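[step 3/7] fold_predict: job queued, chain A
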Amino acid sequence: MTNTKKALVGVSTIVLSLVGADFAFAQDATIKVGGRLMLDYTIADFDEPSSTINNSRVRRARLFASGNYGDSIKYKVEFNKSTGSSVELTDAYIQFVPQNSKFKVKVGQFKTHNSMEEETSSRFTTTLERGAYTDAFGLDRRIGVSVNTSGDNYGFDLGVFGTNVELQSGMEEGYALAGRGYYNPVKSDDTVAHLGASWRYRNQGDTESDIRYRQRPYTNVAADRIINTGRFAESDNFYAGEALYIKDNFWAASEYSFLQANGSDGNEDADFSGGYAEIGVVIGGRQTYKGGRLNRPQVDNPVGEGGMGALSLVARYDTLDLEDGPYVGQLDTFVLGADWWATKQARLGLNFFNVEAEDGTAESGSGVLGRLSIDF
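[step 4/7] structure written:
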């Protein structure tokens, strides 16, 4: 067992004692099996140098098992397969929910607590791909322990993490610390206002590769990154703010992030940033919200029940700035999206995107990303 894993076991033991756990174990357990399938197709053209994309891929194919053990334990195990990759373990955790306590403790592999959009399931994001900074700044899943407390209009998570279970290779592991909090100054049946902030510090192990910052031109079908700093950092600090407003069938959202990268072995430090702003409307339904993130959209009249489903329209501006000192790369993306929700679990989406890049592998490009998404 690595030092990081030993530390996580020790931390989880201490945390459970601190929150005053009073578990009510039961002999019976519940289990739910489900999954999602997302099929993408992209047609796009890029200029200087000229290149084209006309290709499809399985963006996500996931199966999971989740459930409860008595009233005090929840669990989830999920595997993912996409085109060009092997089967990967995504989530694998146990969450302890002590009785008579305001705290919950999660142990296993899961996402660090950063960004409203990253915390929102890919089934429910308003555009088909998340903001560019979430990939470029490496918001990911790791083995860790976190503590959560929440109320009707607030929530807070704090966690300590090792590295992703899929990246174990005998090297000395790095680690990460992360926290996120949110508050709802307004929350009613038809209106939600959300304000949130998050932070993460990560440090590479002595034998791990340096950190790099890079991103594709919106679509994951693109084989290459359009901007890429190369590897140079041994650690970084990430800060982000987030805001969301939902009123009836209208919504507006924005996130902005700032990252301080610490160069290794004489490499220069750097300051990067990224974020997005969007507005949207749902015809025949509305966005929903739960626990500091977007939840499954409401479809008033689904297909199969005498209706035509719901239509979601969104306009987004997304920016990523990796320009500082010797490091170069800036990417601005404009997205117009339309999603037809036949039912609350079946989505057909089209995103038109236009990208403008500086100091990248291409100067500009545009295209259409289509996705068929089904979950069960």
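[step 5/7] annotate
DSSP finds three helices and 20 strands in the chain.
The longest strand covers residues 51-69.
exit 0
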